C-alpha cells in the first residue's frame, strides 16, 4: 500500500465528510418539508434509537481495529490483521443478531416507554421496521472501519461518507415522492440500502485479509495480539462508544418524550444543522488517528504535540466559518427545512458556540483512545451522559428546547475540560491554546462580523444567505492566502507520511 500524505488523507476525508454532511442536511430538508415538525420528530426519534443500538452493538471495535492494526504496522509485524478483524466482527454479529430479535419482540413495550401514549403505536411500528436491520447496521460499521485500514482512507470515505448517505437520500426521496409522505415509509427507505453495503464491505476486505493470512509467520507469533488483549482494550471502549452515541441522541429522545414530537422535530433539525460543521473534525480524526497511534506507541510526545496543534489550527480555520454563519444568519438556514423550524434559531446559537469550543479543544478523544486510555474516556462519557440525562429531564419540561440547548453547552464544556486535563497532564501531549488565537480571530471577524453586516443590510432570507456565503468565502480565502505563513498553513500541506502505512 502506498504512503499517503497527511494533507492528502485529510482532504479526502474532508471532502467525503462534507458530502455526507450535505446529504444529511438534504435528507433533513426533505423530511422537514414533507413530514412537518411532528413527523420529523418521529422520524428522528426512530433514527436515534437505531443509531444508538447499532453503535452500541459495534462494541467500540472501530477504535480497536484502528489502534491494533496501526500498532502492528508501526512495529513492522505482519500476519495479524485478519485476526484483528475477526476478533471484532464475530462478537458484534452474534450480539446484534440477538438484539434484532429482542427489538422485534419488545417493540410495543419500548414504544410505550419512549413515547407519549398518543404516539406509542406509531413508534412501535418503526421499531418493528428497524429490527431486521440492526445486525446489518452493526456489522456494516465494523466492515467499513476494516476497509479503512486495509484499503485506505479513500475507500473508507467513499463507502461511509459518500455512497451510503447518497443511497439513503435517494431512497427516501423516491419513497416520499412516489408513495407519499409518512414517517414509516421514509424511515424504511432510509434503512433499505444497508444489505447492499454489507455485501460490498465483505467483498472489499476479503482480498487484503487473505493476503495477510498468507503473510503470517511463526517469527511473529509471540507478538500477535490475542483475543483477550484486543477485548481488554475494547471492553471499556465498548461502554464509552455506547455512551458517546447515547450522548448524541438522548436529548432528542428526551425532548420527544417530555415535550412533543413537534418540539423534537425542531430540536432534531437544529442539532443536525449544527453537527454538519463537524465534517472537519471527523475528517481530521480519520486522517490523523493512525498517525497519532503510531507516534504514541513510539513515545514521540513532542511530535504528537506539534501534529495536534497543527491539526487543531486547521480545524478552527475550516470549521468556525460555518458556525459563525449559523449564528449570524440562522433564520435563513432553518427556513430551508421549513418555516416551522425557524423558531429554533436562539437555541441553535448556543449549540454552535458549544461546538466552536469543542473544535478548539481538538482531537482529545482520539488521543485518549489511540494512546490506550479508553478507560479514562469511558469514565468521562459516563459523567457527560449522566449530566446530559439529568439536566435534560430537569430543564426540558421547564424550557423546552432551550433547556436541551443549555444542557448541550454544559455537557460539551465538562466533557472537553476533563479530557483536556487528562491529555495535557496525563499523556504528555501538551495543548497550546495561545498558538490558536490568530486562527480563531479571523473567522469570527470575517464570518461573524461580515454575516451580521449582511443580515443588518439585507435581512436573513435565502438569497441574502447565498450572497453572504459567496462574498465572505472569497474574502476569507484572500485573507488566508495573505496570512498563510503567519497562520502556519503551509506545513499542513507537506507530504508527511502516515505512521503505520505500508511501504
Could you characterize the architecture of this molecule?
By secondary structure, the protein is mainly α. The protein has one domain. The chain has helices at about 5-55, 60-75, 80-105, 105-115, 120-130, 135-150, 155-180, 185-190, 195-215, 225-260, 260-275, 280-295, 300-335, 345-360, 365-370, 375-400, 400-425, 435-460, 460-480. The longest helix has about 50 residues, at about 5-55. The chain is globular, with a radius of gyration of 22 Å. Residues about 495-503 have low confidence and may be disordered.
Short description:
The protein is mainly α and 503 residues long. It has helices spanning 6-57, 61-74, 81-105, 107-114, 120-130, 134-151, 153-178, 183-191, 194-215, 227-258, 261-275, 279-297, 301-335, 345-361, 364-370, 374-399, 401-426, 437-458, 462-482.
